[in-house]
Amino acid sequence: RCCQTPQGTVQPEHHAPSFTLHRQTILHHAYDVSTTSQDSGIPIASVAAGFPAGQTPMEQRLQEIREAVKSGATEIDIVITRPLVLTAQWEQLYDEVREMRKACGDAHLKTILATGELGTLTNVYRASLVCMMAGADVIKTSTGKESVNATFPVAITMLRAIRDYYKRTGYKVGFKPAGGIRTAKDSVLWLSIMKEELGDDWTKPDLFRLGASSLLTDIERQLFHCAFKRYAAKHQLSMA
Question: Distance between CA atoms of 15 and 182, rounded to whole angstroms?
Fold first, then answer.
C-alpha cells in the first residue's frame, strides 16, 4: 500500500531515504538557521551524506552536501564508507572522500571514521591518512551513535597520523573526538592529549573540537558553581 506524505507518495517497493522524504522541511529549517546565523555571526555546521550510516548512493550523498552548503553551512560532517576500510579498498575510499571534498566547495570537510567499526588501530591509522590525503580539514572519531566511540587508544592513533601527515606536507589537519565525553574533567583530559601530542596550535578551535552534546549539562553545572559557590540541581539548569 502507498504511503501519503506532505512531500508526495512513497511506493512500497522503494525505501525512501529520510533526506528525500523530508527534504523541504530540512531546507526550510536550514534557511531559518542560515538567516539567524548571518545576523549573529555564528557559523553553521551540518551533517550530510547519509549521516549517520553513510550508506546512501554516492550521488545522493553529494547532493545532500551541495544542498547544505547552498543553505549556508560552512562546515560539513560526512561518514566514510567503512566496508572500504575493512576490505582495504583505499583508492576507492580516497576517490569517495575526494568527491565529497569537491562538493563542499569553500566549506570545511570533517570526515567521521566511525572508528568503533574499523576493526583495528592499523585500519584507523590508514583511514586517517587516506582522508587527509583526499582533502579532509578535520578527522573525527565517531558519530556518537556507535557502540564504541572516542577512546584514548584511537585518539593517539589518529593524532599520530595527523602529526605524520603534517611532517610530510606542512598542512595542519584538525581533530574531533565524539561520543562518551560527558564531564568538564573529560574535556580537560582531551585538551591535555592534544597539547602533548601535537602542541599548542591544536588546542585552539580551528584545529580541535569536541563532539559531546551531553557535556553541556556538566559545563552548566560548573559555571553555576563558579557563580554561586555550590552545584545546582539538574532541574535548575534550563538546558540540562
Answer: 36
Question: Cα-flanking dihedrals φ and ψ of residue 58, to 5°?
Answer: -60, -45
Catalytic residue set: 77, 140, 176
Q: pLDDT of 95-112, one tens digit each?
A: 999 999 999 888 889 999
What does the pLDDT look like over 162-175, one tens digit per residue? Answer: 999 999 999 999 99
| DSSP codes, 18-38 | HHHHTHHHHHHHHHHHHHHHH
- The residues, ordered by sequence, that sit 6+ positions from 56 with a Cβ below 8 Å of its Cβ are 17, 19, 49, 50
Cα dist from 234 to 57, 183, 229, whole Å? 43, 14, 16
CA distance 163 to 194: 11
pTM value?
0.75
